[in-house]
Each structure stands twice: as C-alpha cells, then as structure tokens.
Amino acid sequence: MIPTVFGKITNWRWLEDSFSSFTPRLIIDYKPNDDTTWYFNAALGNKAAGFNTDMADMADSAIAAFEAEFGAGLSVPEEELINYELGWKGIFAGGQHRLNVAAYYLDWARENFRLNRLDDESRYQFLRADIVELLANPERFSLKSAYDLIFFDPPSFSNSSKMQQTLDIQRDHGFLLKQAMGMLAKNGLLLFSTNRRGFKLDAEIERAFHIRDISAATIPEDFKRNPKIHRCWEIRLRHA
User: Fold this and answer.
1) The model's pTM
2) CA nearest 216: which of 199, 205, 228, 206?
3) Cα–Cα distance measured from residue 82 to residue 85, given in angstroms and rounded to the nearest whole number
4) Cα–Cα distance measured from residue 78 to residue 91, given in angstroms and rounded to the nearest whole number
5) Which of 13, 42, 93, 230 is most exposed by smallest CB count within 10 Å?
C-alpha cells in the first residue's frame, strides 16, 4: 500500500499483482573425439516485473503521459530475452594450445542502452570474454589503461564455456579487484556489487584501498526488510 502525501495523507494507492516466469536452459555437447567439442547453449532470461513506487505520488494524467512515452508506468512489465551460443573447442599441438571459437548473441545490454537513449555504439564496447584473461591482458581487448569509473558486478558463480576455470566470487574477488583497480584512473572510482549471501570482503583489499560500504543506500525500498541480499562498496586508490 503506497501513500500519496500532500502535507498529510490524502490518498492511498493499492498496488497488487502476481508474477511468475519459467526460464529453461538447454545445453548440448558433442565430442567426436577427445580433443574436439562442439557445443550449443540456449537460455531464456527474465527480468521480473514490478512496480515503480517512485511514481506513486504523481497525478493519473502524468502517469498516463509517462506510459504513452516510455511504455511503462506504475506497473513495469517483465523483460525476456533468448541468449544462445554455438561454438567449437579444440586442443591441438600435443595439448600445448587450446582454441575456443564461438558465435554468441546477447542483446540485453544493447537493449538497455537503447532504452536509456545511449544508442551511439561508436562510443561503447560490448565484450564477451573470460574476465580473468580480460583483466590480466586488457590491451588484447583494446581497453583503455585508466578509467574514471568501473562498475564491477560479477555473478556469484560461473562456469561459462568462455572461461578456462570456474568463477567463485567469494574465492576470487580479491585477485579480480586488484586487477580491476590497476585499470582505474588516479582519482577514479570502482563500484563493487555482489548478491552473494554471506559474502565477506577480503581483508587485504580493505588494507590496500580506500573502502566505503554503501550497501544500505543501494538496496531498493521493497527489499530493505532483508539487507543481506546485496552488498556494495565504493573503492578508490590510496595516494601517498
């Protein structure tokens, strides 16, 4: 129940709905021999529907105008996207070399940029890579040496076929953050976010950099009853 307030409570908006989704994933591997693998992955992704409670105190006419322009108002519809990957992995030269060639399609990021009117792709890069390799060798991906802002929001766990090993953010975040901080400009800011339950920040990271916990300010109002679902820090370089 969302109150509309003008000096005192004059109106209540009752927002109620139910949402459900089915997000299947299909994985097919074919190994004609021990050194070669063909694979195909397909998954249906989903961003849950909900309510835009920040609009609760707007007039009905203003909400209608907003819906007409942007396609969403008090109720925000769910978003669905099909992700798929077709690729080949091979080991050759006596196991000394490995090659992974994949055709990959993921337009969720591009769609979010488009919706936010950031549609000049000459100004943005959309990369898919092993994060460990990317951070260790950014020049291979034509990345700049120093960024003013880095938003670092890795999954809690990943065994993506693009990676040479699994990713466990509790185990690996210290190493990854040090690598990412090496790409930060002198007065830059790195935002590190995770939804890993029971996550603990590496003490060595706290000693090496300026850390500020901003978790409370980044949890949506609807989820503040359970603050353990999300953690977020501002991380800056220390200067002598």
Assistant:
1) 0.57
2) 228
3) 10
4) 42
5) 93
Which residues, in sequence order, are CB contacts of 57 under 8 Å at separation 6+?
4, 5
What's the fold here for domain 127-240? Rossmann fold (3.40.50)
Residue spans per domain, the chain: 1-124, 127-240
Burial label, 190 (beta-carbon count in 10 A; 0-12, 13-18, 19+) = buried
**Strand pairing report for 2-6 and 8-13:** antiparallel
